[in-house]
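From the shared-data thread, chain only:
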Amino acid sequence: MSLAEARDRAAERRKLREQEIDPIEARETAKRQAALERAKSLKFKDAAATYMTAHRVARKNDKHAAQRTSTLKPTLRSNADISRFRC
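Structure, as tokens:
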């Protein structure tokens, strides 16, 4: 980051402070909003595949992994929007 860019960013944060907005909280809110938007566009099929890949090591053997995957196949075929599912 150049000195000019750093000064511009500092000026933007000073403007936020003048409006009585905490720059750190504003940044965190923007990050949470971006994560929420990404999650809203996530398909169940993609989320399930990511989960299964990440947790495959926890399975005792390949048979268990195959059983878990096969229980999700009807849902995965539909490529359903994950926002349909409520916790």
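The first helix runs from residue 3 to 18.
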